[in-house]
Amino acid sequence: MKRWHKRVAMGLPAALLVVLAGGLWSASSSLLFPSFHGATRDLAVCPAEAEKAWGPSCGNLRATHALAFTEVQVPSLNGYDMPGWLMGAAANGGPAATGAIVLVHGGGSDRREMTRHTRFFLGRGLDVLTLDLGCSGEAPCPVPGQSYGARESRDVVSAYLYLSARYPHVLAMGSSVGAAALLIALPEMPRLEGAIAENPMASFERLVREFPGAQSAPRWFMGGMLGLAKLRGHFDGLASADHSLRLGATTPLYFVHGRRDQVVSFHQTEDLMALYTGPKTAWYPDVGDHGALREADPAEYERRLAVFLASVRH
Predict the structure, then answer these.
(1) Beta partners for residue 311, in sequence order
(2) Can you list the pairs that 306-309 forms with residues at least 24 positions away whose Cβ atoms lie under 8 Å?
(3) Dihedral sign, Cα of residue 89, residue 91, residue 94, residue 96
(4) Residue 300 vs residues 284, 297, 304: alpha-carbon distances, Å
(5) Strand 126-131 relative to strand 81-87: parallel, antiparallel, unpaired?
(6) Contact call for residues 39 and 54 (beta carbons, < 8 A)
(7) At residue 141, does pLDDT exceed 90?
(8) Which domains does the chain have, with CATH numbers?
(9) Cα–Cα distances in angstroms (integers) from residue 196 to residues 62, 162, 182, in the given order
(10) What pLDDT, in 10s, does the model give residues 58-81?
(11) Of the residues 68, 178, 187, 278, which has the maximum number of CB atoms within 10 A of its CB?
């Protein structure tokens, strides 16, 4: 009996370590491989939750044929081609294009997420590019997992260069991780005429530490999860919106972030707004979940967006 107790006592620490390691691995996997609204990397798959958020067929233009578009491949500085859809304003009933805008999707999502915004910009004489960031949708994934703006920001710069070679005027809009990537890339896009950042995060670490579900976790566990996610995902977390915006810029920024956001606190956008010394404006609506501000009040959302566009497009 004593021998049995001794074996149990010796085995408990090892078992505990295995359980803890498994918990850290699982938690870091959730960070590296999120799935927003149940989206998968197969654009033909449309979960009910995603369809409710993104519209018919989850915004898949191949299935709906709702807009005329061209399949494109945008070379990325990260070493792969990003698949995308380029939509012409004139080809979709709008005025002749005088510029273009790239719409950058959020984490765990893909280009389909941004389809619901497309008609608004086409109707204002902007051709629209939507694309899959690395490790999202149909894009290659040479380094498994997303990096919360680190690698994604280079994808955004690549889209900017692609459009700048074809259009005299270029704008950009990003949501969540896409917004963070856009803000990180801002210093490398000097000719960008305007940028729209919807519910951005200030940094990867702040996103995780301030997430409501993480408040009860021990600090050592949070530190371990952050460290393991960065190790597995091959990024250091230093590239962040709050670091990039300190560099200053002249690009007009429009921040929009719901006060009831349960994923990223709107206080992070308030802090980013305070950091930026360039031209800026912000709206903090009282309704609308993370990534769903337009759906909460489409008329007011687009009215304010139109005011911003008018201020930057003379």
Answers:
(1) none
(2) 306/124, 308/194, 308/196, 308/252, 308/254, 308/281, 309/124, 309/171, 309/194
(3) positive
(4) 12, 6, 6
(5) antiparallel
(6) no
(7) yes
(8) 33-203+240-312 (3.40.50.1820)
(9) 26, 19, 9
(10) 999 999 999 999 999 999 999 999
(11) 178
Lowest-pLDDT range of 23-27, 32-36, 76-80, 237-241:
23-27
Closest-CA residue to 179 (of 107, 75, 115, 273): 107
Please give the model's pTM, rounded to 2 decimal places. 0.91
**What confidence score (pLDDT) does residue 20 get?**
55
Tokens read off for 86: 């380029």
- Strands laid side by side in the 194-198 sheet: 70-75, 81-87, 126-131, 99-104, 170-175, 194-198, 253-256, 280-283
Cβ proximity of 41 and 137 under 8 Å = yes
Q: Are the C-beta atoms of 93 and 120 separated by less than 8 Å?
A: no
What is the C-alpha to C-alpha distance for residues 254 and 252, in angstroms, rounded to an integer? 7
